[in-house]
Amino acid sequence: MVYPIVKYGDPVLEREAETVTDFDDPELHKLLEDMFESMYAAKGVGLAAPQIGIARKIAVIDCSNGQNPAEKLVLINPQVVKVEGKQVGEEGCLSIPGFREQVKRGKRVTVRAQNAKGEPFEMTGEDLLARAFQHETDHLYGRLYISHISALKRDLIRRKVKKLARAGEWA
Ligand code: NI
Questions:
Q1: Can you tell me the distance from the alpha carbon of 21 to that of 150, in angstroms, rounded to the nearest whole number?
Q2: Distance 137 CA to ligand 1 centre (A)
Q3: Ligand 1 centre and the CA of 46: distance in Å?
Q4: Which domains does the chain have, with CATH numbers?
Q5: How far apart, in whole angstroms, are the C-alpha atoms of residue 101 and residue 111?
Q6: Distance, CA 92 to ligand 1 centroid (Å)?
Q7: How far apart are CA 135 and CA 131, in angstroms?
Q8: Exposed, middle or buried by CB within 10 Å (0-12, 13-18, 19+), for 46?
Q9: Could you tell me the CA-to-CA distances from 3 to 32, 83, 98, 141 in Å, in that order?
Q10: Structure-derived torsion over alpha carbons of residues 99, 104, 107, 111, reported in degrees to the nearest 10
Q11: Which of these is catalytic: 16, 122, 136, 169?
């Protein structure tokens, strides 16, 4: 099932999600499938559960855009444990469609998370994957990428979004 993507302005995107504790829940596996399906439908490389209105610490990532099953990643209760180097590049978010900004991130990022079975693991990614690790983990703590840009640029996006919302073009 493809879920609609929740847009910037919805409070679910700006509060910390809940830690997942029940890994025997059959609905968790259905939810993970639906998250991949929703992410591919929206042409994203990452999706966090709050973006489909579910306030739980779950994210999916696929930097291959569905081209390579080996790149499908599930991060449950992730934490960024190491950040090395830096990269500056354009970043966007499915919840803030139509906008992209230059964002500084780590070049090499290590996350500690649990997989779909609840087993803990650590993984290090570089470049786009490093950026996705930081972006998606941020989502689960209620932080959007625009919290990493200047207040001036953030306010500009906020004003444009308000205008689109008033025109009924932001839902
Ligand atoms: Ni995002």
A1: 36
A2: 10
A3: 7
A4: 11-166 (3.90.45.10)
A5: 24
A6: 7
A7: 6
A8: buried
A9: 12, 32, 19, 21
A10: -80
A11: 136
> In degrees, to the nearest 5, what angle opens at C-alpha 156 toward C-alphas 11 and 51?
30
> Structure tokens of 116?
């779909």
Ligand 1 centroid – CA 142 distance (Å): 11
Q: In which element (H, E) is residue 87 found?
A: strand 87-91
- Measure 47 CA to ligand 1 centroid, in angstroms: 6
Amino acid, res. 19: T
| Model pLDDT for residues 17-64, shown as the tens digit of each residue | 999 999 999 999 999 999 999 999 999 999 999 999 999 999 999 999
Active site residue 136: yes
Which tokens hold the place of 104?
A: 């500084």
**pTM of this structure:** 0.97
The C-alpha atoms of residue 24 and residue 45 are separated, in whole angstroms, by 27
Specify whether the CB–CB gap between 40 and 65 falls below 8 A. Answer: yes
pLDDT digits (tens, 9 = 90+) for 117-153: 999 999 999 999 999 999 999 999 999 999 999 999 9
